[in-house]
Amino acid sequence: MHSSPSIAVKAVLFDLDGTFADTAPDMARAINAVRGDHGMPALPLAQLRPHVSNGARGMVAAAFDVKPGEANFTELREAFLIEYERAICVHSTLFDGMLETVTLLEQRNIAWGIVTNKITRHSAPLMRAFGVEMRAACIVSGDTCARAKPYPDPLLHAAKLMQIDPAHCLYIGDDLRDIQAAHAAGMRSVAALYGYLGDSDPQTWNATLSIQAPGDIVALL
Hints:
Structural class: alpha/beta
Order of helices and strands: EEHHHHEHEHEHEHEE
Strand content: 5-15%
Number of strands: 8
Radius of gyration: 17 Å
Helix content: 25-40%
């Protein structure tokens, strides 16, 4: 963990998948169900987990080696989304220490919220299932703004909703696009090294800070 930021932190914003919550088991189950429908064997969770932060696009690419614009991508993506919605929060959980961390933020009168590329039809029921939907100062999803991360739009929208200057916000994420979005929004960025991390080295992201566990956030304040 790097040293604490010098500017007062008034809000902490979290990415959802791989940062706030471990949603990989349910997303892996969904994409493996689609593989089963195509007569293909299930892939191990460990193989799929790094791709979860890239959402449906990442899961389809990992499971079928099909990318947006290629044949069958749209059909596979929709099949995955339908399957995922059937059981969106069966094995998904908040990361260890996350509930205690947001409780401490609330006790310190520091706002917290979610900024995710997950679309509202998935982010909203997940946050309800976790029992924290009404506690978040904001929930900005992938379809809230015209442009999602790595563009700064959703982070700036979150700051506006909370009426807090972006310079006083921390944004925590487990993917390069999270760090890029934070920098573009004028926020300090925190790399969640316990998350999914994708296929790039977080040491190359140029994050302002990094943490090994959710509880480390408290030491940054």
